[in-house]
Design goal:
Blueprint (H helix, E strand, L loop, with lengths): L2 E4 L9 E7 L6 E2 L4 E6 L4 E5 L4 E6 L6 E3 L3 E6 L6 H4 L9 H14 L65 H10 L17 H25 L9 H14 L4 E9 L1 H12 L8 H15 L5 E3 L4 E3 L5 E3 L1 E3 L2 E3 L2 E2 L7 H16 L13 E5 L18 E15 L2 E15 L5 H16 L7
Parallel strand pairs: 12-16, 16-17
Antiparallel strand pairs: 1-8, 2-4, 2-7, 3-6, 4-5, 6-8, 9-18, 10-11, 12-15, 13-14, 17-18
Length: 454
């Protein structure tokens, strides 16, 4: 019996997938569990596996195509089995691009809601409605008008380049004709070395500037004509998901922000001392913050919570997500039971998860299930920012950079390492005093970092 190869939900939030690469060709023998293709989800690149035995008779999607969940991608069947009724109006992967585009609506409607690869699995999620008619093609690019040529500004001093001759008043010597030509062409005389008597600028000097800048204008015009006035970058699935999730959070969630400044001097000293013990003891400020946040959440379970519309769920386990920048967006791998992990376990696991995230190899179970999030931009020179809550979580902590600042301690001026943090709070779950007490606890741990390792 034939098995349909469909676009599966390879992550909990996936609505469509992009077929990156077929790993099997038409006519190849396949067994259940064999990898048929690589699919880009909204978070990572995952393997699409066969759900039946037989021969890959048809591939109905091209590499690079994005398809909603449930879309028919191919058919596995016996070599002599008739599959015409299955593929129906579906367009083979070898069809021309215009024909494939025209046939996609028919393919989607011909694909039944239950078109799983497995013949015994539950029906796939209903296919979403199309986003509407395709947007009109942008107007053809037109070459931009090249800028008027200008000579470089004169260096400081008397306004002339070395070798150029200026009058005693500081104005460069030039003939009346040269000045008129320069004015007509928008050329500044200050950057031109004259070839006339005594370094005087004459007509031929202006014409030489015109010829040189004209050639440059011609090259620039050709480049602009070839490249156009702009370039459209298609949205990746991860960027689409980021846009949707941010809209879900920034509008409906009533958010308030709490900013505090911590003394990170002892934390910096601890890092330096640990590094002296060997590379295996190396930890980052981010590792220290994650550990401090995890221990603080254990003391404030009302912050370690989700808003679920009809109830608030307080978690007994602490799973901290850390924001990791990837090529076309960000992803939040999770450190499960972070309060029970040692500082070195957090450091090693964080590096492992960050590397997998950047390679787009995180499986769903490693980026879902967080109860609170931390986002750090301090390594990029940002001293303070606000982060957007990842629903249904109730809060996220934004970490700025550590920098030296003069502060007054016991009436004396000292230079200390300082760190600014901002907590975004869902007011439906966290009140102002609740968030402030949580930040006080985080501060206590960071300013007394030995408590993180004993």
């Amino acid at each position: 019996m034939a098995t349909k190869v469909t676009m599966e939900a390879l992550s909990p939030t996936m609505e469509e997938g992009r077929l990156v690469k077929w790993t099997k060709n038409e006519g190849d023998q396949v067994k259940s569990g064999d990898v048929l293709a690589e699919v880009e989800t909204d978070k990572a690149i995952m393997d699409l596996v066969a759900r039946g035995d037989g021969v890959l008779r048809k591939r109905l999607a091209n590499e690079g195509d994005a398809s909603p969940i449930g879309t028919l991608l191919g058919v596995i069947a016996a070599p002599d089995e008739n599959i015409d009724a299955i593929i129906g109006g579906a367009v083979p992967a070898t069809a021309s691009a215009p024909a494939a585009a025209a046939a996609k609506p028919a393919q989607a409607s011909a694909t039944p809601q239950s078109s799983d690869q497995s013949q015994t699995e539950a029906p796939a999620p209903p296919q979403q409605k199309a986003a509407g008619p395709a947007a009109a093609a942008p107007p053809a690019p037109r070459p931009a008008s090249p800028p008027r040529p200008t000579a470089p500004p004169p260096p400081k001093g008397n306004g002339a380049r070395p070798g150029a001759t200026a009058t005693p008043g500081g104005r460069q010597r030039s003939s009346p004709l040269a000045r008129r030509l320069a004015s007509d062409k928008g050329i500044q005389l200050g950057g031109i070395q004259g070839s006339g008597p005594g370094g005087r600028i004459v007509k031929r000097d202006i014409e030489n500037v015109k010829a040189t800048s004209g050639a440059a204008r011609s090259a620039a015009a050709e480049r602009l004509a070839a490249e156009g006035d702009f370039k459209d970058i298609p949205l990746t699935l991860i960027r689409k998901t980021i846009a949707r999730r941010l809209a879900e959070s920034n509008g409906p969630v009533p958010t308030f922000f709490l900013t505090a400044e911590f003394d990170a001097t002892r934390a910096a000293e601890l890092r330096a001392q640990l590094l002296e013990m060997g590379e295996e003891y190396k930890v980052s400020f981010n590792d220290i913050v994650i550990k401090a946040v995890a221990l603080a959440l254990a003391e404030h379970p009302e912050v370690n919570a989700h808003w679920l519309n009809d109830k608030i769920r307080h978690f007994n386990r602490i799973h901290v997500a850390m924001a990791v920048a990837v090529e076309d967006g960000l992803i939040t791998p999770v450190l499960f039971d972070a309060d029970r992990m040692s500082l070195w376990d957090i450091s090693a696991k964080a590096r492992e998860l960050a590397a997998k995230a950047r390679e787009r190899k995180l499986p769903p179970e490693e980026y879902t299930g967080s109860t609170f999030s931390v986002s750090n931009l301090g390594m990029f020179g940002i001293d303070q920012f606000t982060a957007i809550i990842n629903p249904p979580e109730a809060g996220i902590l934004a970490i700025g950079g550590v920098e030296e600042k003069p502060v007054v301690i016991d009436g004396a001026l000292e230079v200390r390492q300082r760190m600014r943090v901002t907590m975004s709070c869902d007011h439906r779950v966290i009140d102002g005093a609740t968030g402030a007490k949580f930040l006080q606890t985080v501060k206590r741990y960071i300013e007394n970092p030995l408590s993180l390792i004993i």
